[in-house]
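Lines hold sequence, tokenised fold; shown next:
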Amino acid sequence: MYEQSSDRWGIVEQAVELARRGEEFAMATVVWRQGPSSGQHGSRAIVTASGELHGWIGGACAEPVLIREAQRALADGQPRLLVLGAEEQFGHVPQGMTAIAISCQSDGALQIYIEPVQAIPHLVVIGRSPMANTLCELARDLDWAVDLVDGPDFSTALVDARAIVVVATQGHGDEEVVEQAIAGHPVYLGVVASKRRGEALLGYLAGRGIAQDVIDRVRVPVGLDLGHTSHREVAVSVLAELVQLRAAGALVPQHATVVAAAPAEAIDPVCGMTVAIEGNGRCFDHEGTVYYFCCPGCRTAFMNDPASYLTTGATC
């Protein structure tokens, strides 16, 4: 049965919501199929960093491979194009494509494009100066999530572990605002101030008993050194620094979801398919060694004649 178009768009909407919540995930799309296969052209699925799968790209043979490769894509930040099927179906595999042999009783094949998706940055700018407004406008042009808050209206509740906080109160309650921002444990905290003013601010924080390692993470003065600039041009230097840090992977929350470790795997001694060990009830103990299988058919074939498969087979 072909996947309904509404289901595919539902996955896209779910992906947008995950990104807005600051959660990283991988989007998988079937770009080619050879029937018979339950995966269809344009079928989409989401794989979270913890290995949760939402959507549909194929059956039990394809899903474990998809989850494993999606988590690898999240770990290295690189997209990949997979071709899944019986090894004899591959022929010449173009450069840049990864061929993974699976044993599927339907004899179908799939090409799946996996794209890791970074979370949308959340920028919180505190202040009411023209520079603060310009910074917000520039960040919104990059499709960042932006909050502009006046100093008296700011509270720790507006900050979380993925927030990028820029304090631009220009001497109007800087100390209190920075102290409140620190309590929210943002991934980045910078202050628009002169070097001299910054030293005084950091001294205040030390006097308040804030740990030195926390103080060391406060960026002041904030922004790249672009030389003599106007007040509004400072916004360009600030955003340039944030873009540079993000590209370098330095704006990852300390409590961000860690990509789950790949589950233990084994090789099905009958078909050669890689299968997960955890939760796999299709196993068989032969002479003290446990073998794992992708389907009941492989398990039965092995049970009936183990010797014919042990010369090339392998266990976990």
Summary: The CA atoms of residues 131 and 232 lie 4 Å apart.
